[in-house]
TrEMBL record, chain A:
Domain (WCX) ranges: 242-314
Protein name: WYL domain-containing protein
Pfam families for the chain: HTH_PafC, WCX, WYL
Domain PafC HTH: 8-126
InterPro entries: CBASS_pafABC_assoc_protein, PafC-like, PafC_HTH, WCX_dom, WYL_dom
Domain WYL as annotated: residue spans: 148-214
TrEMBL record, chain B:
Organism: Streptomyces solicavernae
PROSITE patterns: WYL
Domain WCX: 245-315
InterPro entries the UniProt entry points to: CBASS_pafABC_assoc_protein, WCX_dom, WYL_dom
Protein name according to UniProt: WYL domain-containing protein
Organism placement in taxonomy: Bacteria, Bacillati, Actinomycetota, Actinomycetes, Kitasatosporales
Residue ranges constituting the WYL domain according to the UniProt record: 147-211
Length: 326, 317
């Protein structure tokens, strides 16, 4: 599949260099070395014999495969010099350097890993030369609770169960759970994916909401699970979830940036009518309270009512503690 | 059937890399089948120019040389296109393998894989498979904002841009003319720092508030680019991360763990309530209202008044 001609060209140029040095390379090994599927590699091998320094006079690359190994019958069609490894493009250097620097800043990362990242970054900067110059115009910070991160990382590598006290903002409560950690991932915030024995299900825990953590003696034994696809939004409301409608003024437009929603309709005052779904509408009472003068929940009615009565109750507490101020 | 673009680009790259003397456009057209099939001179010329730009994006340095007769020739010299020797050990290779997977943006994900493949071709160690998950850690850089790619290129090439931007509290977007300096991602959101030409000052923009297209403007930057561009510190202060004041609160026992985690002192009042001292910054009032009747601000009076105002707005419905 030639999804993107630019990426495929880039890959084929590296393949030519790689294959010239390795007669009879195995399809499986090459695909793995290049981080592509065997089908992608074979589609590259279909194109390469149509390429050369000229399509006349037998200058085309005579590269073929028996389905297992790759053979290049006329390596002289391209001089060793012309097939030398190519310098990094600005975007290539930037993409790798910015990512490596970002990962190296993760609090809680193992020292050995951090050092390897920093050494690799320095070598890459040297190899890229001035091409690396634009890489400081992009930067990414990963945040994590260093201590919690390091404990989860250790539990995963030692395959041990964890005990955590975990904060749930929707209910404003702390719960104690035993979990078998599966992996750590960072996506804006840092998370642990784990099998949770309290809910008998796979759960994702945000590390900055872990109030306490302890590694237990029991070995971790999470059931075989399909890991979540990190390219998709973490919150995936289902079509059966109840619908909530939030109307916000211009000052509440941020809601559309933070909450996955079905629709956001522009209102004449510069505000939005946002329709979203959630399995637990009561968890949005916090949002209704937070919005204050910048918006309100219009449906469902019992959620709107619960926010209003929470505010009335809170105002009564202010009254009782010496007036409501200005 | 038209010849695939990747095949055409590959042929042009090999011709330019394989030659020791500059090749004229006519020679290149005679050597590359796709160009022969291009039809008119015009369509060939357009295709050729685009292809050269694409190869340059891939890092190829293509020189344009004029000979004595005034004919233009092209070549990609070996010495300016070769990767300098780089020796990475197995641990460093694994570290870069991890880094190559973090971008969730198509262009940079492709560029990162491409970089790793170039290093692979140059002999990056293969004992460890760099594409295997490294320990069990998977960092990802999310990019949801459509404005990211054009702004990334504009920062790279130092090109002024114009875009429509809606400020947090504004009802309507407004055109902003900006010299873009740097992009930074914090807590999953992207921000642009740059010189705002209309305001004659440095400004920070949140990419999700850019509406419509980012358009390039001709000409160069007019303001000097500072050596160090700070984004995160400014955004953190907006987010109330920088605490410069202190409040005294009453909090219901067992409630409000995040408030307790930030508190400098907690005292049990005994009647089911605790008293907290907590440092705070911008946006504290909105946050406290989230806890509804479980929190009461005692001091300072301004914060107490702000929270009460917000509660009244909610109570009104």
């Amino acid at each position: 599949m030639a999804a993107n001609a630019i990426d495929q060209t880039r890959r084929m140029l590296s393949l030519v260099t790689y294959l010239r040095e390795r007669p009879g390379a195995r399809i499986a090994d090459v695909a793995r070395a290049f981080g592509i599927s065997e089908d992608e590699l074979i589609s590259d091998l279909d194109v390469l014999p149509l390429c050369g320094t000229s399509f006349r006079g037998g200058d085309l690359l005579d590269i073929d495969t028996d389905g297992e190994r790759i053979w290049w019958h006329n390596p002289a069609a391209l001089s060793a010099e012309a097939a030398a490894p190519l310098r990094l493009a600005a975007d290539e250097a930037t993409a790798l350097l910015v990512a490596a620097r970002a990962v190296a800043t993760l609090p809680g990362l193992r020292e050995g890993d951090r050092e390897a990242l920093l050494r690799a970054t320095a070598k890459l900067e040297a190899a890229a030369g001035e091409t690396a110059g634009a890489s400081d115009r992009l930067s990414v910070t990963f945040e994590s609770e260093g201590g919690v991160f390091a404990e989860v990382d250790r539990a995963i590598s030692e395959r041990r169960r964890l005990w955590v006290r975990y904060y749930s903002p929707a209910r404003d409560e702390l719960t104690e759970r035993e979990v078998d950690p599966i992996r750590l991932f960072a996506l804006g915030h840092t998370y642990m994916e784990a099998w949770c024995y309290r809910s008998e299900a796979r759960r994702t825990f945000r590390l900055d909401r872990v109030a306490e953590i302890r590694i237990l003696d029991e070995p971790a034994a999470p059931p075989e699970l399909e890991l979540r696809d990190l390219s998709e939004a973490l919150v995936q409301p289902s079509a059966d979830d109840p619908e909530v409608v939030v109307e916000v003024g211009p000052g509440g437009r941020w809601v559309a940036e933070y909450y996955p929603h079905d629709s956001a309709e522009e209102l004449p005052d510069g505000g939005l009518r946002i329709t979203l779904r959630t399995p637990d509408p009561a968890s949005l009472r916090r949002l209704a309270l937070r919005l204050g003068p910048d918006g309100r929940i219009t449906a469902p009615e019992d959620l709107a009512r619960s926010a209003r009565s929470a505010a009335v109750e809170a105002l009564a507490a202010y009254e009782a503690s010496g007036g409501q101020g200005a | 059937m038209a010849i695939a673009k990747a095949e055409r680009l590959m042929n042009l790259a090999l011709c330019l890399l394989g030659t020791r003397r500059p090749l004229s456009k006519r020679e290149l057209r005679g050597s590359i089948e796709a160009y022969l099939e291009a039809g008119s001179d015009d369509s060939f010329n357009r295709m050729f120019e685009r292809d050269k730009d694409d190869l340059r994006e891939l890092g190829l340095v293509i020189e344009t040389v004029e000979n004595l007769d005034g004919d233009v020739g092209y070549l990609a010299r070996r010495d300016s296109n070769r990767l300098p020797a780089v020796t990475l050990d197995a641990e460093e290779a694994a570290a870069l393998g991890l880094a190559a997977k973090v971008w969730q943006q198509a262009r940079l994900a492709g560029a990162a894989s491409g970089a790793l493949q170039k290093l692979r071709a140059a002999g990056l160690p293969e004992e460890v498979d760099p594409y295997e998950p490294h320990s069990a850690l998977e960092p990802r850089i999310p990019v949801h904002e459509a404005a990211f790619e054009p702004l990334m290129l504009a920062c790279r090439d130092r090109r002024p841009v114009v875009f429509d931007y809606r400020k947090a509290n504004a009802a309507r977007p407004e055109a902003r003319h900006v010299e873009p300096w740097a992009l930074e991602c914090w807590r999953g959101h992207w921000y642009l720092a740059g010189w705002d030409r209309d305001r004659g000052a440095e400004r920070l923009f949140r990419l999700s508030r850019i509406t419509g297209k980012v358009r390039s403007r001709a000409g160069k930057f007019t303001a000097e680019v500072p050596d160090v561009v700070t984004v995160r510190e400014t955004v953190a202060s907006w987010a109330g991360e920088i605490a410069d004041r202190s409040a005294k609160l009453k909090l219901r026992a067992g409630a409000g763990y995040p408030l307790r985690a930030k508190a400098t002192a907690v005292r049990e009042l005994g009647d089911g309530w605790d008293e907290l001292e907590i440092p705070y910054g911008h946006g504290m009032d909105a946050w406290l209202v989230e806890f509804g009747p479980d929190v009461v601000v005692l001091e300072p009076a301004e914060l107490r008044a702000d929270v009460v105002d917000r509660l009244r707005a909610v109570a009104k419905g």
